[in-house]
Amino acid sequence: MSEATAYSPFATEVMVDPYPHYDWLRREQPVAWVEEFVAVSRYRDVETVLRDPGTFSSRLGNTREVMPAVANTTMITSDPPEHTALRGLVNRAFTPRMVAAMEEHIRAITAQLLDRVAPTGHIDVVGDLAHPLPVTVIAEIMGVDLDRRDDFKRWSDDAVAALGGGAYGQSDRMGESLAEFDTYFRELIETRRRHPRDDFVSQLLVKAEAVPDAGQLVTLLFLLLVAGHETTTNLIGNGTLALLQHPEALAAVQADRGLIPSYIEEALRWDTPVQGLYRTTTREVVLAGSRIAAGTKVLVLYGSANRDAEIFPAADRFDVRRNPNPHLAFAIGVHFCLGAQLARLEGRITTTMMLERFHRLHFDPEAEVERALNPTVRGLRCLPLVFDAP
User: Domain 12-388 has what CATH class?
Assistant: First the structure.
């Protein structure tokens, strides 16, 4: 095993820009001791970990350590066959057919959001679009009250902060958010048991006879809330920022809207919304020539794998024409992101409609881009832009 490294995902300079640090890890210590865990940074090794849940367990090492209030098993804290059963409860809501059927409605929501800011010539891409769109979509999928949208965002933000660890992750605020979420959804579950509707929670109750415990259902819904919009929010924010930072890429996409799907994949690769998650070894294993003992927590760095030059030529270049692009932003194997197609669809729609409606889109000279500092989830707090009002 490599000696401990000075790299830490919790260091401010790493959270601001982790990619030079990932480059050092891949080059010098691809399997490195970092504080109390091992960081895996090369694409091939990350892929190996993700494809072997029997050796690298999610059940033994993911969010339970940083979100102890989430006591029940979720899809990201379980292994097959338990994971398979839980995924089977919810996958119907995210099939390609179901996602495709939502396209026109997502366009309508996006149009409403853009209409609000169009006369002003100013948009905060995060606050005005990247946050409210996916929260609204996932709330509608779950069949819950849209007037609780701000509560959903607050609950999700606190969960993401906890996922990043640290003192904030264990704060009273996190406990309060979980308690509020738990109360709301236990009441909703009981209401749907008595009076079923044609919505996701009602369908879930029909399918969940093998999981009758309300606590486990609430935990499953909590994960869907967080995962159902956080990746999309960060994809839209990070991707738009990347376009504005690379004028040649923005010009290419403006000239050829057929590049937008390729741009979305490159945005996912170049500034990955979820930088990594944990696994724990169930046995002793050798990875990249390093021996890892059983019971070792492993930080699987998707963000680093997606900048590995062995897989991606000119990996640090933002290339909206990159092909192939086998990024791991949505993971791979049994834990491949359930909402990947929905995130891609929302990303394509928002980009297309912003470019169609807003001309000369550029940074607001009187405001600053603000990044959210989190070692696990990479996104922005605000992205203020200006444009020629239609």
Answer: mainly alpha
